[in-house]
Amino acid sequence: MNSINNPNDSMPKDVIDTLEKIQGRFPGARRAHAKGLFFEATFTPNGNAIAYTTAAHLQKEAVSNCPVFEQSTKPDSIRFSFTF
Fold first, then answer.
1. Is residue 25 within 8 Å of residue 33, measured between CB atoms?
2. Alpha-carbon span 44 to 60, nearest angstrom
3. pTM more than 0.70
4. Which of 13, 22, 66, 69 has its C-alpha lying 20 to 30 A from 55's C-alpha?
């Protein structure tokens, strides 16, 4: 089984080599989904989910996050994600 923590595992290097072979090298940029817009934001939940989850971003306190709009691998599509 492959594991990120296994120093003898060649899969992570193989994946990066394949991405660079297909897309080219762009020093200083992420190897996948490198084009995009990153923002700093604060998410303020209403607290209604407290009975259903212990997730920090769904309690009553405001949480910092990083919304990202990035080009997807599919033509003419944009991916949207949050990092808390």
1. no
2. 7
3. no
4. 69
